[in-house]
Write a structure and sequence with these properties.
By secondary structure, the protein is α+β, with helices and mostly antiparallel strands. It has one domain. About 35% of the residues lie in helices and about 15% in strands. The longest helix has 10 residues, at about 1-10. The relative contact order is 0.23. Bound molecules: zinc ion (ZN). Zinc ion binds near residues 14, 40 and 44.
Length: about 60
Amino acid sequence: MKSTRLRICTAKRRYLTQEQAQAAVERATIILRPYRCDRCRQFHLTSRTKGKRIARPVG
Ligand SMILES: [Zn+2]
């Protein structure tokens, strides 16, 4: 759904470069993965890690 993807795009934080996205990943308390968005040509983070459910302990 285009509209859904657009909403996700606009709602999500955007990173100009993969390096910035990666830096945010390393600061996060959960496992995130940067991906290139084909709408804004920038990077977003997703918590979906294909099949793997790895969560860092919080606290
Ligand atoms: Zn986007």
